User: Fold these one by one.
Assistant:
Number 1:
Amino acid sequence: MDKFKITIIVLMCSLNILFAQKSKEKIKVHKVWISKIDNTKVIKGVLFEVNDEYLKIIDKHSKEIIVKASDIGIIKIRRKGKVGKGALIGGLTGLGTGALIGLASGDDPDRTVDGWFFGDFTYTVHGTSAGTKAAIWGVTLGAAGSVVGAILGTKKEIFLIDGHTKRYQSHFNKLQNYSMSRKK
């Protein structure tokens, strides 16, 4: 009976710890590029807030910039760190694939080659081991995968507004999801 009581007490304490943890929603930072309809310079920064009438952006100098919806021509958005993440995933995928190709091809046998330039001279060419081929293929495909992943990571989502507040309103919910200060 004592074991049963101890088990119940331990279980109750464990459940309390599990339910006491609060789940935090991780804030995802998105870079934004805004072209105004008057073709002045492109505004770059982090999308901080989306409002019915304007966007609030924080530039690289931590300065808040407010852009009215009627002044916006094009909005381009990309998640911060997406290029690096794409390069990392592509590089690791290429590395793993290349290593598998090299190991699956096995060891090459040694070959004896007769020399024709110096007469009756023969020599042995050592075959490439599976490990060496895995390293060569892995590095080669890893580099190629990193380049492809980085290129794919540069893709931006584009919203064409052209100063029309109705177009801005039609994209409002999606833009709201990209902002750092989401209103529930």
Number 2:
Amino acid sequence: MSMHKTGLLHKVVNTRGNAVVEFALVLPILLLVVFGITELGRMIMTTNVLNTASREGARLAAVSAISDSLNVHARVEEVLDAASIEPSSIVVNYDAAAHSVSVRVTTDFEILSKSVLPAVLRGTIELSGQTVFRFEG
């Protein structure tokens, strides 16, 4: 009986480092998931702001004169500045045949978690938002 107790005690002593090893194996995957979700959330937020800015610009363009595109650009930039997003392009198109106006806003989204995420997800991604309204002006 004493041999059985000694074997059980020996087995418990040998498993003490298992938690550290398991944590070391799981930590990189856990960090990848956490930082990946964070970057995905930032990307969705940026896309939402781009869509909002294009909608604001398209609404202003729809009720303004065609020559008023400087105010449309200013309105789009105002919405983007509120979210600290730098646009790479703002394009306003008037389609006389379809009686519509289109505003497209693009930006280069920079991934901030470069050191944690794999090389495939590093760098910049071009995001855009576009809105088409019926021209009323």
